[in-house]
Specification:
TIM Barrel, globular, binds flavin mononucleotide, binds iron/sulfur cluster
């Protein structure tokens, strides 16, 4: 045995201690958690044999239309697909990236979300459906923009940094971003953690009522939660009057977060959806309050499994950025020289040096991303996810992706069986239940 084989005192742990000892600070990074946890790959679908008829792909339709927020809103979000793009702020992302995401989602009949820091005029122009975030920071919050939104999303927490506020390193707080957020330029922005006008869930009820009045009961009000104490949080948000609840897991992406929160806080996407579904069921609101899942949704298979577990829709962040070219060596980029790691290993969104122009405010780097080409790639990716979901649903004999259910799946590991509450493959046993 040699020291390097120790799982507890690995070379990486020692390197971590060395750098903290030198700098006297905690680590911040972008992208997402590096923890190995149970995820959708640990679940499989049980497509049809003799027990059910599969549907013919070329002549039998599979519905993918998705309605979000029909509990109280006069105009719920009606999307052509259960996949939409999550909130990623202007500041974390370049203006070009925001515009490309808005155009790309419009091209595929779905929605995008502002993120922290306000609504970009280009984003509003390009997006067919735009969700407007209301965060504890209130950066860039404007009642004029609020009434131009197609849905509002109150952010209580994010999966990548539950219990803390947004983080934008000073290198990205340039003139435009600073002006929109009413902040000085070049200073690290650590957003507040709590909404200034709340002391508890009753104040969330008041806030939801205020927003409904401000928007004439037209648009859905979403509440976004980092997945920690899912069951209680979901019940409280639903009781407070949310039309839709976004449950964002520990695997969720970020532009910047403290590494300890990324890796050591929150629960994975699979059990988060199941707990949220059960919580809504217990209070009789499953099917009335829309459930949206986010956190490492990478394909139509992941999205279909999320729906089968109980979600009505999924929101994608990193997958949409990867469709824009994140972690891809392009003609103009040189990942190794510019960022210090090869393409495919980059998690440096927090540095503002994105070699493909996505998570940067540097005008030269931003030129590496084209709005139209980026939008087309995002639309292609979302369309392919939608087709994959329909393909899986048809193979299970279902004419609507929303008819997928836990009974359609088996788990490949005991952990996945316990977390997803579906039987271990080859057995009738749901472990732990
Ligand atoms: C670059 C980047 C910026 C983000 N900015 C915000 C934000 O402003 N507000 C917010 O609520 N979440 C933000 N998030 C988190 C996403 O909304 C979402 O919760 C997460 O990306 C979902 O996980 P996924 O990336 O694995 O799909 C950001 C994520 C990324 C990758
Ligand atoms: S390529 Fe850009 S968006 Fe992707 S991880 Fe690196 S810095 Fe972030």
């Amino acid at each position: 045995m040699v020291m390097g084989q120790s799982q507890i005192w690995s070379p990486w742990i020692m390197d971590d201690i060395h750098s903290k000892a030198e700098l006297g600070r905690y680590r911040v990074r972008g992208f997402s958690s590096f923890q190995k946890v149970t995820h959708f790959d640990d679940l499989v679908f049980l497509s049809t044999g003799l027990t059910r008829f599969p549907l013919e792909g070329y002549k039998e339709r599979c519905n993918t239309q998705t309605i979000i927020g029909h509990r109280y809103a006069q105009n719920p979000l009606v999307l052509d697909t259960p996949v939409y793009v999550t909130g990623m702020s202007y500041g974390a992302l370049s203006r070009t990236a925001k515009t490309a995401l808005a155009r790309g989602t419009a091209m595929s009949g779905t929605a995008t979300c502002t993120g922290d820091g306000g609504m970009l005029p280009q984003e509003r122009e390009e997006a067919a459906k735009l969700i407007y975030q209301i965060l504890p920071s209130r950066y860039g919050l404007s009642p004029h923009d609020m009434v131009r939104a197609d849905a509002l999303e109150i952010v209580v927490g994010q999966g990548a940094k539950p219990g803390t506020g947004g983080l934008l390193m000073g290198v990205k707080v340039l003139d435009d971003v600073a002006a929109m957020r009413d902040l000085p330029t070049g200073i690290d922005q650590r957003s507040p953690t709590r909404h200034p006008d709340w002391l508890g869930p009753d104040d969330l009820t008041v806030k939801i009522e205020q927003l409904r009045e401000a928007t004439d009961w037209r648009v859905p009000i979403h509440v976004k939660l980092g997945a920690c104490r899912v069951s209680d949080d979901v019940k409280l948000a639903a009781k407070a009057g949310a039309d839709a609840i976004v449950i964002d897991s520990m695997l969720a992406g970020t532009g910047a977060s403290a590494e300890i929160l990324l890796d050591h806080s929150g629960i994975p996407t699979v059990p988060a959806i199941v707990q949220a579904r059960e919580a809504l069921r217990e209070i009789g609101l499953y099917g009335k309050v829309s459930l949206i899942a986010s956190g490492a949704i990478r394909s139509g298979a992941d999205a279909a499994k999320a729906l089968a577990l109980g979600a009505d829709a999924v929101a994608i962040g990193l997958a949409a950025l990867i469709a824009l070219n994140c972690n891809k060596e392009i003609e103009e980029s040189d990942f190794e020289n510019e960022i210090g790691v090869p393409a495919g290993m980059c998690h440096h969104c927090h540095t503002g040096k994105c070699p493909v122009g996505i998570t940067t405010q540097d005008p030269e780097l931003e030129k590496r991303l084209g709005v139209q080409e980026g939008a087309e790639r995002v639309a292609n990716f979302i369309n392919s996810m939608t087709m994959e979901m329909a393909l899986l649903a048809r193979s299970l004999g279902k004419s609507d992706v929303h008819s997928l259910e836990p009974e359609d799946m088996a788990a490949l590991t005991i952990e996945a069986s316990a977390m997803a509450r579906v039987p271990l493959a080859g057995t009738d046993r749901v472990f732990g239940w």
